[in-house]
Design goal:
The chain is of the alpha/beta class. 19% of the residues lie in helices and 32% in strands. The chain has 3 domains: 12-93, Ubiquitin-like (UB roll), CATH 3.10.20.30; 100-187, Elongation Factor Tu (Ef-tu), domain 3 (Beta Barrel); 201-324, Rossmann fold (3-Layer(aba) Sandwich), CATH 3.40.50. It is globular. Residues 11-97 form the 2Fe-2S ferredoxin-type domain.
Length: 329
């Protein structure tokens, strides 16, 4: 392939026999896409890790390796979407992980704009992790796993339809039972670990942030017989955005140590408390010392709740989070 730029800059990216000079403020991912290269990507916010690449020459900015394992960092892997080098780099695609092709076995409506997909796939995962769902083998988005190994014989995703998105409208409108989809993963560190069966837990999420929390709480109770008090708080702007009322009631009825709260800024449902989720959680758990906390939902929510829990006494190492980064899904 001919060189795209004759003049090298301080941050020239060498990739696939070509050189791409990054523009001011441009990430490696954006520069390569602008130059016409085919590079996998998803959220473009550093969460899904779909754009992971490997540095074969030069220095990797440490910020682009946040969230990667020590082994991945040692091998020079980095996230292209958050890589803004100050010097030239030679990069290569990460060896492709094997995609799993599996059929959709159930599709049902959860709210006016959220569907539940159940996919018959053999996958080794932990409830609360996420997988990448592909459309046409190229476009991918990350979705958290609401299913539990040993309880469900499928993987379950909750997909919110985002107007103008590249993947969610297809999954919401067009994907049918019997269709085969490609998935990759799992990834993520937001899952239950049975280190202390008596430790109190706080799980808080907004909207489809309930998906990973539903998996995590069932994993803790059903697979690991967690004995400590569990507070699950699910929030939204309006009560119509909330779901799984019957399923969570049945779960709490069979496990006395589980307390489930639905809260919304506006509510027309008697089962939903009209309240601010931040204040509600603050009053529910005024002293977070000794708690294990799981936070799932919009990035702004996770960031604010993480700070609130830390200030309430929770050890930062005991706060696990799955932040949904806006990507125009």
């Amino acid at each position: 392939m001919a060189k795209l730029f004759a003049k090298k800059s301080a941050n020239t990216i060498r990739f696939a026999d070509s050189e791409v000079a990054l523009q001011d403020g441009e990430s490696v991912l954006d520069g390569l896409l602008r130059a016409g290269h085919s590079v996998p990507y998803g959220c473009r916010g550093g969460s899904c890790q779909s754009c992971m690449m490997q540095c074969t020459g030069g220095t990797v900015p440490s910020a682009s390796q946040q969230g990667l394992t020590a082994a991945q960092q040692e091998l020079g892997y980095f996230l292209a979407c958050s890589c803004h080098p100050s010097e030239s780099m030679s990069v290569a695609l990460k060896p492709a992980a094997e995609k799993i092709i599996a059929p959709v076995i159930d599709k049902s409506q959860l709210t006016a704009n959220v569907v539940r997909l159940r996919i018959k796939a053999q996958l080794d995962y932990r409830a609360g992790q996420f997988i990448n769902l592909f459309r046409n083998g190229a476009v991918s988005r990350s979705y958290s796993l609401a299913s539990v190994i040993g309880v469900d014989d499928y993987i379950e995703l909750h997909i919110k339809r985002v107007e103008g998105g590249k993947l969610s409208p297809w999954a919401y409108d067009d994907l049918c039972v019997g269709d085969e989809v490609a998935i990759e993963g799992p990834n993520g560190q937001c899952f239950y670990t049975p280190s202390d069966a008596d430790q109190p837990l706080l799980l808080a999420g907004l909207g489809t942030g309930l998906a990973p929390l539903y998996g995590i709480v069932r994993d803790a109770l059903v697979n690991h017989q967690h004995q400590g008090q569990i507070q699950l708080v699910v929030g939204g702007k309006h009560s119509e955005q909330l779901y799984l009322f019957d399923e969570l009631k049945a779960l709490s009825d069979s496990h006395p140590n589980l307390n489930v709260s639905f809260v919304a800024q506006q509510s027309t449902n008697a089962a939903v408390t009209e309240a601010d989720i931040y204040q509600y959680c603050k009053e529910l758990v005024p002293d977070g010392k000794g708690y294990k906390v799981f936070l799932c939902g919009a990035e702004s929510f996770v960031k604010k709740m993480k700070k609130q829990c830390f200030l309430a006494g929770t050890n930062m190492a005991d706060i696990a989070a799955d932040a949904f980064v806006a990507s125009g899904s």
